[in-house]
Amino acid sequence: MDSDGFEIPEGLFCYDVNGSCPKSIRPNSKRIPIYAAIGGTILITVCGNLVVIISIAHFKQLHTPTNFLVMSMAVVDLLLGSMVMPYSMVRSVENCWYFGDIFCKVHSSTDMMLCTASILHLCFVAVDRYYAVCNPLQYKAKITGFVVMMMITISWMLPAVVSFAVIFLGLHMKGVEEFYNNHTKCTGGCVLFLNEASLVFGSMISFYVPGVIMVCIYGKIYLIASKQARAIKGVANKAKEASRSRISRNRERKAAKTLGIVMGDFLLCWFPYLFCNIMDPFLNYRTPPVLFEVLVWFAYLNSTFNPIMYGFFYIWFREALKIILFGKGFQCGSSTINLFSD
């Protein structure tokens, strides 16, 4: 019964209490395919990134600065697929949050942290590729094991501190508490509600500024790589050593191109959600919730696409996948197998 004495039909709300969020009413003919599609996406995300992590960790030939950054980024995507996406799936399909208010904050903080960590990893990968392609003679001196470890540490620690501090200290709600309590808050909901300052500052720091930096870096890499390619093409075949150096440099350019495509995929997947999110406060929070759900899943797909692109562009990924699937990775000395010719 509601406050006016009218009976509330069963199943229309997340909980049988006053102020409960309305539940999504979908027949099983729609609910089951949606769960199957999202569940399949989560499985591909987890398994694909797990293969990337195992491959780079196991095979010594893949122990390079770039690949360690790629492996750390794959860990970010793996955690997103295993710790964030399953709970988001239930929330999206049912329009209800059944896991409690505290875990809602943990989930939102983790989601924000992993999104920011992804783009910071991509930023550092861009820096790594810049030195490899544009300053190859300084590459080993500049990009040392210590430098890579610092890059990875910053990519994890900075987003973790900022994300959890913003959510658990309530900084994201300053000045909009009354609006949230009157128009959005309900029992059984888990909405990442951000004020204008949090949205603008957070989006600029975690997406727009790094995105512009990466575009500029990869633009310069592309120009220099194109110039090098033309120079190499114009030089006649020389000694074997020169040929070996040319192959090595071609590999560096190909790696830069591939990782540039990975970066472009990230920007394409996340931009619609972040643009809609940053505009929402200025539209008086009128964006339909269902649109947010669709856009956030489109953004999550970035973590699904990354290992698929590795498989398409990198021969080492395909070879490592074969070795892992056929159980050859457990054989003695498998870590020294050549996945590609030097």
UniProtKB/TrEMBL annotation:
<keyword id="KW-0472">Membrane</keyword>
<feature type="transmembrane region" description="Helical">
    <location>
        <begin position="68"/>
        <end position="90"/>
    </location>
</feature>
<keyword id="KW-1133">Transmembrane helix</keyword>
<keyword id="KW-0812">Transmembrane</keyword>
<keyword id="KW-1015">Disulfide bond</keyword>
<keyword id="KW-1003">Cell membrane</keyword>
<feature type="transmembrane region" description="Helical">
    <location>
        <begin position="32"/>
        <end position="56"/>
    </location>
</feature>
<dbReference type="InterPro" id="IPR009132">
    <property type="entry name" value="TAAR_fam"/>
</dbReference>
<feature type="transmembrane region" description="Helical">
    <location>
        <begin position="295"/>
        <end position="317"/>
    </location>
</feature>
<feature type="transmembrane region" description="Helical">
    <location>
        <begin position="110"/>
        <end position="131"/>
    </location>
</feature>
<comment type="similarity">
    <text>Belongs to the G-protein coupled receptor 1 family.</text>
</comment>
<keyword id="KW-0325">Glycoprotein</keyword>
<dbReference type="InterPro" id="IPR000276">
    <property type="entry name" value="GPCR_Rhodpsn"/>
</dbReference>
<feature type="transmembrane region" description="Helical">
    <location>
        <begin position="255"/>
        <end position="275"/>
    </location>
</feature>
<keyword id="KW-0256">Endoplasmic reticulum</keyword>
<dbReference type="GO" id="GO:0001594">
    <property type="term" value="F:trace-amine receptor activity"/>
</dbReference>
<dbReference type="GO" id="GO:0005886">
    <property type="term" value="C:plasma membrane"/>
</dbReference>
<dbReference type="InterPro" id="IPR017452">
    <property type="entry name" value="GPCR_Rhodpsn_7TM"/>
</dbReference>
<dbReference type="InterPro" id="IPR009133">
    <property type="entry name" value="TAAR1"/>
</dbReference>
<feature type="transmembrane region" description="Helical">
    <location>
        <begin position="143"/>
        <end position="171"/>
    </location>
</feature>
<feature type="transmembrane region" description="Helical">
    <location>
        <begin position="199"/>
        <end position="223"/>
    </location>
</feature>
<protein>
    <recommendedName>
        <fullName>Trace amine-associated receptor 1</fullName>
    </recommendedName>
</protein>
<dbReference type="Pfam" id="PF00001">
    <property type="entry name" value="7tm_1"/>
</dbReference>
<dbReference type="InterPro" id="IPR050569">
    <property type="entry name" value="TAAR"/>
</dbReference>
<feature type="domain" description="G-protein coupled receptors family 1 profile">
    <location>
        <begin position="48"/>
        <end position="310"/>
    </location>
</feature>
<keyword id="KW-0675">Receptor</keyword>
<dbReference type="GO" id="GO:0005789">
    <property type="term" value="C:endoplasmic reticulum membrane"/>
</dbReference>
<keyword id="KW-0297">G-protein coupled receptor</keyword>
<keyword id="KW-0807">Transducer</keyword>
